[in-house]
Amino acid sequence: MTSTVPALDTRTAEGSALQAVLLDMDGTLVDTEGFWWDVEVEVFASLGHTLDDSWRHVVVGGPMTRSAGFLIEATGAAIGLAELSVLLNDAFERRIGRDLPLMPGAARLLAELTAHDIPTALVSASHRRIIDRVLKSLGPHHFALSVAGDEVPRTKPHPDPYLAAASGLGADPVRCAVVEDTATGVAAAESAGCHVVAVPSVAPITPAARRTVVGSLEEVDLPFLRGLVTHVG
Q1: Distance between CA atoms of 88 and 42, rounded to whole angstroms?
Q2: Is 220 within 8 Å of 214 (Cβ atoms)?
Q3: CA distances from 163 to 121, 151, 176, 182, 223 (A)
């Protein structure tokens, strides 16, 4: 986990208990969920295996240990998890080096949170090397800290990444709003006790208690997020 500013000074609008906003990366802020699948297809093709498109929904949003492990088992590829992780990260880094599109509304939302001094964290299942590369495009000044999937004992769908982010910001998880695009990320945030905004990227997500589903980040702004956390608990 990397941090660039001190723990938060609680500044919330009257009537809102919001202390911090925690944002997923792939598929939420940057349009890269498809990139990961393309990279997995490319790498396994180089190993002599063809991926079944139905597996895409199995691996989306998960940590590399889970997605890569599943694909090794499904294909029977003669490669270890550590070696495959390096190949996938190398290929993904090359891919985002060519193009890194933001999701609609992402740049506007980040600028708004920064302008209002809202403590914000980037929380991803991707490895640190990938997060640092993406941060150069997103603007590291928008985030007080970032948490990578290879920096916590258990990554998504476990609550550890979001608990670490809230702790790093000095925030109570129940007073944090999380924005996620996959069921795996939503499960992690909800297990941490956070309020969740789901913006589905690949597979549908249904509304639930403490979970609001929207079609795009263009529907999400600071008043919207503050409205989610109007009481503690």
Answers
A1: 9
A2: yes
A3: 11, 13, 10, 18, 24
| Nearest one of 151, 153, 26, 143 to 95, comparing CA atoms | 26
Q: Tens-digit pLDDT profile for the chain (233 aa)? A: 665 544 444 444 555 799 999 999 999 999 987 888 999 999 999 999 999 999 988 887 667 888 899 999 999 999 999 999 999 999 989 988 888 999 999 999 999 999 999 999 999 999 999 999 999 989 999 999 999 999 999 999 999 999 999 999 999 999 999 999 999 999 999 999 999 999 998 889 999 999 999 999 999 999 999 999 986 54
What CA–CA distances, in Å, run from 12 to 123, 131, 168, 212?
Answer: 22, 28, 18, 20
pTM score, whole prediction: 0.83
Q: Could you tell me which of 121, 170, 171 has the C-alpha nearest to residue 142?
A: 121
Closest alpha carbon to 60 in 190, 166, 197, 205: 205
Strands ordered across the beta sheet of 145-147? 2-3, 145-147, 120-123, 20-23, 176-180, 195-198, 211-213
